[in-house]
């Protein structure tokens, strides 16, 4: 990471001594899932707990990929810088997701905290050594890589949708599926990103996203009880809209 970066100046960190991996509240849906107590201790020994504030850049595109991260609290947006200086959001991460996997020595994207976040940070070299020692850890990481590919394919499908209502409905369904996979229920989803971020991700204007969400709310398909949260009231209708059947 760049020395003197905003990230380095605002992150507080401490070794995970008082909060071992086995007590982590997202262990069951993260990299640590299904590891034995002994293996968890080994993973904990190379982990550092860090906290980042809202708006802080956690990794920068093309910086050396020296660390990997497990998101344990908060949410993150991923983005790439286009040649003309514009920013394209490519994804969102939530507790239990993994950050920083790189196919070469540099990060392929940047990541910024959408809200105050907590992460476990792993030195890449040490984690790679541990993967050789713990097959279950390697298998878990491969599964998470597969999930990343699925999410990338989902975004391609989202961008390929014809209308705004199809794109927004598909986006909400995607978040619902991710929430259900982790919590068992996908009716209430976290929506910490702003309308402009959603629009950037879907290839829509901020105004179009706001108008579409308002229409869904007026029809009773969704409700927005609080900022940062959305409740799906009619999953079947939302699915039909996403598939262009309504």
Automatic annotation (TrEMBL):
The species this protein was found in: Kiloniella litopenaei
CDD domains tied to this protein: CAP_ED, HTH_CRP
Q: Which domain of life is it from?
A: Bacteria
UniProt keyword list: DNA-binding, Transcription, Transcription regulation
GO CC annotations, alphabetized = cytosol
**What are the leading ranks of the lineage?**
Bacteria, Pseudomonadati, Pseudomonadota, Alphaproteobacteria, Rhodospirillales
Q: Which residues form the Cyclic nucleotide-binding domain?
A: 31-148
The entry's protein name is Crp/Fnr family transcriptional regulator
Q: Look up the signal peptide feature and give its range.
A: none
